Amino acid sequence: MSKRQGQRLQGMGCVLILTVMLVDHFLFSIQEGFILAAACLSAALLIAGVRMVKLAEIRQEQAGQNP
Question: Is the pLDDT of residue 44 over 70?
Answer without folding.
Answer: yes
